[in-house]
Amino acid sequence: MQSLINLLQKPLRQYDIQQMDETSLQVLEEDSKKAQSKSYLRIQCAGAARDHIHL
User: Fold this and answer.
1) Which terminus of the chain has fewer Cβ atoms in its 10 Å neighbourhood, N or C?
2) With bands split at pLDDT 50, 70 and 90, how would you rate the model's confidence at 2?
3) DSSP states of 1-14 as a string?
4) What would the 3-class secondary structure string for 21-38 be?
């Protein structure tokens, strides 16, 4: 999985500025976790307005 993440992040690293956000959320059905536990969604983006990259 890490090699896939690295591949997806490679084009993002060519930009001087990146924006990142982490948001907690509740997932109702997730293996080996109760529905009341927190999960996290992480978003990373970079790029000029015309070719914005989201990951």
Assistant:
1) N
2) very high
3) -HHHHHHHHGGGGG
4) EEEEEECCCECCECCCCE
Which residues lie closer than 8 Å to 11 by C-beta, 6 or more apart? 47, 53
Residue 44 DSSP symbol: E
Q: Rounded to a whole number, what is the distance in angstroms from the first to the last CA of the chain?
A: 14
Residue type, 41: L
Its pTM surpasses 0.70: no
Joined tokens for residue 37: 């536990």
Pick from 23, 13, 1, 5: nearest CA to 45: 13
